[in-house]
Amino acid sequence: MEKWIGVVGGVGPFAGIDLLGKIAAQTAVNLDQEHLTVLNWSQPATIVDRTEFLLGQVAENPAGALAAQVQQLAKMGAGVVGIPCNTAHAPRIFNQIRAELAAANCNVQLLHMIEEVGRFLQDNLPGVTQIGVLSTTGTYQAGVYVEVLGALGFTAVLPPFSLQTEKIHPAIYDPVYGIKACGLATEQAQANLQEGIATLKVAGAEAIILGCTELPLAFSEPTAAGLPLIDPTLILARALIREANPAKLKEVIE
Amino acid sequence: MEKWIGVVGGVGPFAGIDLLGKIAAQTAVNLDQEHLTVLNWSQPATIVDRTEFLLGQVAENPAGALAAQVQQLAKMGAGVVGIPCNTAHAPRIFNQIRAELAAANCNVQLLHMIEEVGRFLQDNLPGVTQIGVLSTTGTYQAGVYVEVLGALGFTAVLPPFSLQTEKIHPAIYDPVYGIKACGLATEQAQANLQEGIATLKVAGAEAIILGCTELPLAFSEPTAAGLPLIDPTLILARALIREANPAKLKEVIE
Predict the structure, then answer these.
(1) pLDDT value at position B193?
(2) Which pLDDT value is given to residue A220?
(3) Which DSSP string corresponds to B53-116?
(4) What CA–CA distance (Å, rounded) separates B140 from B96?
(5) What is d(CA B203, CA B158) in angstroms, rounded to the nearest whole number?
(6) Does a structural domain hold residue A254?
(7) Which of A199, B43, B111, B244 could form a disulfide with A37 if both were Cys (CB 3.0 to 4.6 A apart)?
């Protein structure tokens, strides 16, 4: 029995749409009618900024609003749900989402995007242990990737804090040239990210995780500076299809 | 009071995602949290091919499944709904959707994408009366644009039937090179469409409607052969924002 996929959209707005596109592109079909049922609930007004919460700038945990939207998707019929936002997978947020779903007796299968990335690395890049991570400063400071990858035997390689706050985070969040504000990767955002990748490579990174869902918009090639780029949104898309109906998952990433 | 936007996705799969992206891109925001609430219900397995119905190849009217999905969106809280599929706006389908919603006492505001295109032409291209239309053969034979544009005082200019069936429809539906199968516009699809536009221009067209939601994927510029290209998905996106909260509609198309 094929499960329906639920997506909590709007975190950020273009990341949710990117996930929907990757679900469609990774589904093996001959006809429109064979595509999976996908429900998207995008209500960003209720979800406070995940980074601001993790950095202590707002008190409200976005977990409450995220859990409410997961529950709405479950009520509509979704059997497996994904949240295309790296920062929402910080333990202080994601564990609280799980707790709220349990308290509400909501048994929908909620995938953990970053655990899926860890599994992907184990299966697809054997021998690689040093993983560079580009992300928001919220994800960086919360140690999301350090903790989850560490538990799976990897070492996360992060940029120095000054580079993180002056170049990487602004590539995503700067009001003038950031990907969120512009809906695309400006030249300045791309230059900042290339500098980040070069620095991570010198520090020993053997692959680069694009650890914010807006970042894949900045890269059209599967590698940068000779290192494979790992797109968690793409991995989440494939994991959602696998859980919904494995027979419809394309064998090879396209 | 801001309305929630509902989208019937999956008709076709990439067209629904394209609409969601255009809604986000046309919304004036400073923060993620200011984006509109958008609910997407994509359940393509239940919706028979609109063209096959109009051409008499299947008996079931897709209106029933489309109306059911509009009702689901209304039940979830959507106040204004769009269906990003030109062929679904053929009177034999769209009038039936309206009848089923009325019979179910569903009072959600359902926009008519092609009537919105007509309004856009009146407001933005004054003096233009001859409108070329590229579409599926289902939309072509059903006379969707001829009827709706005619009622608004325009003359629809269509390709000769042989060009329509041998070049235009296959650019969308061919299993090898068509946009639906490939998820992008192949060189062959683009060549077919350029031939169509050149023919419509010779026949007097002063603007070209990309009258199938997959077609905008084939064009990155706002004109072709010197004629303005009209994207109904973009116009539907802006109409949905206008009805949800006009203060959030970007003044100029971006």
Answers:
(1) 97
(2) 87
(3) HHTTS--S-THHHHHHHHHHHHHHTEEEEE---SGGGSHHHHHHHHHHHHHTT---EE--HHHH
(4) 19
(5) 9
(6) no
(7) B43
Same domain membership, residue B55 and residue B11: yes
Asked if residue A241 and residue A168 are part of one domain, the reply reads: no
Write out chain A residues lying below 8 Å of B17, CB-based.
17, 20-21, 24
Q: What's the pLDDT tens digit per position in B61-72?
A: 999 999 999 999
Angle, helix B113-124 to helix B232-244, in steps of 10 degrees: 90
Q: How far is B108 from chain A (nearest CA, A)?
A: 18
Structure tokens at B23: 């809604």
Is residue B100 situated within a structural domain?
A: yes
Radius of gyration of the CA atoms of chain B, in A: 17
Phi, psi torsion values for A31, nearest 5 degrees: -135, 150
CA distance A78 to A38: 8
Q: What is the CATH number of the domain that holds B101?
A: 3.40.50.1860
A181 is in which domain, residue-wise?
114-231
For A17, which of B24, B30, B33 is closest by C-beta distance? B24
Collect all residues of chain A within an 8 Å Cβ-Cβ radius of residue B30.
175
Out of A24, A33, A42, the one facing B37 most closely (by C-beta) is A42
Same domain, A191 and A203: yes
Query: What are the two backbone dihedrals, phi and then psi, of residue B15, each rounded to the nearest 5 degrees?
Result: -65, -40
Q: Which of A14, A40, A49 sits opposite B39 (nearest CB)?
A: A40
Domain presence at residue B192: yes
Q: Please check whether residue B49 lies inside any domain of the structure.
A: yes
Where helices occur in chain B by DSSP H, the ranges are: 13-25, 50-54, 63-76, 91-103, 113-124, 137-142, 144-151, 161-163, 169-173, 179-182, 187-202, 232-244
Same domain, B156 and B221: yes
Mean pLDDT computed over B152-161: 94
Q: Are residues B85 and B123 in the same domain?
A: no
* Cα atoms in the 13 Å half-sphere on the side-chain side of A84: 38
ipTM: 0.90
Q: At B12, is the pLDDT very low, low, confident or very high (cuts 50, 70, 90)?
A: confident
What's the number of domains chain A is made of?
2
Note whether A93 and A40 are same-domain residues.
Answer: yes
Q: What is the spatial distance between Cα B186 and Cα B190, in angstroms, rounded to a whole number?
A: 6
